[in-house]
Structure formats: structure tokens, C-alpha cells
Amino acid sequence: MIRSTLALAMIATLAACSPSDKPAASNEAASQAATAAAEPAISALDAAIAGSWRDPANAARDGWRHPAQTLAFFGIAPDQTVIEITPGGGWYTEILAPMLRENGHYIAAVMDPESATSEGAKGYYAKQIETLKAKLATAPDAYGTPEIRAFDLAKPVFGEPGSADAVLTFRNVHNWQRSETAELMFQGFYDVLKPGGTLGVVEHRANGDVAKGDSSGYVGQEQVIAMATAAGFALDEASEINANPADTKDHEAGVWSLPPVMRLGDKDREKYAAIGESDRMTLRFHKHAAAAPAAQ
């Protein structure tokens, strides 16, 4: 409880301060004393990662998913409007929603069950939404009032044009590659972002391009860059934050052979546990800023 209270207090305090909020010289000593009193003085991002509301099983994956480094690489700040695309069980929701609670806005973009083409798919997406709502209800003081926003995969719209500072997607591109909807999705990301806004992508990385309909769960890094570029994005930087050279990418059940899914059960379990989570690309793109008006 102490850790949770401290984390929430630090999120609120740090989120309210802009980088230009520097104490006057006469207040410098008091500011230093206040800083020393915090135990420890941590960033809003670190406070969210340390929050006691996080599922222990999710927190145990931090060593593989590197949330602090990944979100810092994407430049996510507490005062931004951030849309996470299909957050699934809410692994990153546990971090992003509290971080953005005070001065930003977290939006979970989920598949609209009514737009699914089969009853099984409708039930699957409906269950995902209910699971996410249940998670958010467990700690309202931490999560605040994040938004769950449904979209139609056949014509994805994620909000008003130019309304988001950042769009993030974690381990989802392979689904769109397989269903041949990636072009629509990336165009939707571009449309909802402000000029200069950020698209952050983490995805299981194949050794090269994969064919349409590939079911391994991996996608080629150059393929993803091409998808984003075709929608109008420019690549800022590729990072190896989430790389795993031990991943050979030739597993019987594809990426799902590896933790945390371990789809093969006890078969070769020790081998897959030793490999760990998949090798992943981490890519940061930006939407081109609007051109300045011509001089009159």
C-alpha cells in the first residue's frame, strides 16, 4: 500500500510539472529538501511501473518487455493523448493509464465485436473488452477514467483526425499482416495523429519478409517499415531494446511456442523457457508536420 500511495503521488506531482517549471533561486534550498524527502524521487513512468495495482505475472515480464526503456524511446509523456491499439489483457494499460491519469488521456482502441464476421470472433472480442473493463475497475484510483474506444477492422477509425499525440501497438502487426488489413490500420493511425505525432511499434521479428497468410506470428522488420511508410510515416529510429538473439524463430507453434504462452505445454518446455520471449523490433515513426503556409 505504501508503494502504491507513493507511486500515485509521484505520478500526480510529476505529471503536473512541465520541464520548464524550475524553482526560483530563493526556493532552491526548499526544493532540494523536498526532493530529498521523496523516497525515491522517481519519474511518472517509473512510478507507474512500480505501482502495486499491476498484476504480478505482468510485472514479472518487465525483464523481457523493458517498459521503461520502450516508452521512453517512444517519447511518451504524462500530458499526452495516447491511443494503444488492441491492448489485449492490458499489459501496457497497467502502466500507461496511471501515467496519463492526471494530465493526459489513455485510450484503448479495441475491436468492435459487432464488426466481427463470425459468432466466435464476436464472442472473443466481447470477452476481451469485458476483461479490460474488469481490470480497470480493480483500481479506479490508479487508472482514473481511461477510454475504451471500439473500431471496425474493415474501416478502422481511431478518433477525430489529428487528435492524438501518440499511437502505440505491441505485438499486433502479425494479425493484420495475416488478415491483409495492415494497410487500413496504418492509414488509420496516420489519420488520428497530430502532425508530428508518434507511432510506436513493437513486433515479433522474422529473419526476413514473410508471405501473406503466414501464421508464425513473426513479421519482417522491413515489411513493417514499408507498411508505415506507405501510410505516410517517416521512420525516426529502430531500437534493439526488445531484441533477443536466442530466438531462432523456427518453432513448432510459431512465436506462441515461447513464453508467456508456451502453447506446446510440456513439450520442450525447458528449451523454450530458456529462450525466453521473442526477438522483437522496436520502431518509432512520426507523422510529417503540416507544411508552413506560403509567405504572402
Give a description of the structure.
By secondary structure, the chain is of the alpha/beta class. The chain has one domain (55-287): 3-Layer(aba) Sandwich (Rossmann fold). The protein is 38% helix and 17% strand. It has 13 helices and 7 strands. Helix 7 links the parallel strand 1 and strand 2. It is globular, with a radius of gyration of 20 Å.
Q: Compute the number of structural domains.
A: 1
Instruction: Report on the biggest sheet.
Output: 7 strands, mixed
Average pLDDT rating: 87
User: CATH-wise, what's the superfamily?
Assistant: Vaccinia Virus protein VP39
**What's the CATH class, please?**
Alpha Beta
Distance between the termini: 61 Å
Coarse morphology: globular
Count, helices: 13
Q: How much strand?
A: 15-25%
Give the strand order, joined by hyphens, for the main sheet: 3-2-1-4-5-7-6
Q: What is the H-and-E element order?
A: HHHHHHEHEHHEEHHEHEHE
**Which CATH architecture would you pick?**
3-Layer(aba) Sandwich
Please supply descriptive tags for the structure shown above.
single chain; 296 residues; alpha/beta; Rossmann fold; 7-stranded mixed sheet; 13 helices; 38% helix; 17% strand; globular; disordered C terminus
